[in-house]
Amino acid sequence: MSNATEARCLLRAHRYGALCTLSKKLDGYPFGSITPYLVDHDGSLLIYISALAEHTRNIENDPRVSLITHNQRDPNIQMQGRVTVAGNAHRLIDQQQPAARYLRHFPEAADLMMLDFAFYRIEPVAIRYIGGVGRIHWVNMEAYLATQAAIFARHEEAYILEINAHQRDTVHRLLQQVHGVEESDAQVVSLDCDGLDVRCGNRAFRLDFADTTTDPIQLKSLSSLSFHLP
């Protein structure tokens, strides 16, 4: 994988990060908070935040933000991978469009839909990726942005239904190979050019392709694809 793809995959593999905004109250001092996020098909980040939150007020005053996440399954903080996204955050005009996909990842957010929460998109302008000791890179942004985003977004829900209906055994086998778990209730909740997201009860797992997939029709036969193994 390229550094850009590794950075995108690391972001996709995790569900929360430290969001840093520029404080309106404190005259521009960095203000950090923890927030869930979802990587959209193109590599931009979606966050669902309350109008009452301090970081939301900061974003409305100055859209420049950064978000950092790390390999949350690795206890060695100095050796693990991490990635920082710097970008501009803007409230989405169409609040319905991202809701279904977001709720598949965060079903507990359903109760927030009745409150003052709204979706914001973080459009990346720069990404710093650390893959481990000596692997430190500013990512090429043209290489980072997924050019296959539109076609995967268009077909995602149909292929999720097909995979969950007809390829459950393959998904179970991959979970055992990649994560060492055997779950009878595994359900694919999203897919993209880099891999699949699977939920097992309250647990989430990522299955990354060995290589970026350019055409979602290939997902009709998961057993014919190569996946990244530990």
Describe the structure concisely for a colleague:
By secondary structure, this protein is an alpha+beta fold. It has helices at about 5-15, 55-60, 100-105, 140-145, 150-165, 170-180, and strands at about 15-20, 30-35, 40, 45-50, 65-70, 80-90, 115-130, 135-140, 185-190, 195-200, 205-210. It has 2 domains: about 5-145, Pnp Oxidase, Chain A; about 150-225, PNP-oxidase-like (Split barrel-like), CATH 3.20.180.
Query: Architecture of the largest domain, according to CATH?
Result: Roll
Total count of strands: 11
User: Termini distance?
Assistant: 14 Å
Largest sheet: 8 strands, antiparallel
* The CATH class of the largest domain: Mainly Beta
Please state the CA-atom Rg, rounded to the nearest Å: 18 Å
Shape: globular
Strand content: 25-35%
Structural class: alpha+beta
Mean pLDDT: 92
- Domain count: 2
Find the CATH superfamily of the largest domain.
Electron Transport, Fmn-binding Protein, Chain A
Low-confidence stretches: none
Number of helices: 6
CATH topology-level name of the largest domain = Pnp Oxidase, Chain A
Helix content: 25-40%
Succession of helices and strands:
HEEEEHEEHEEHHHEEE
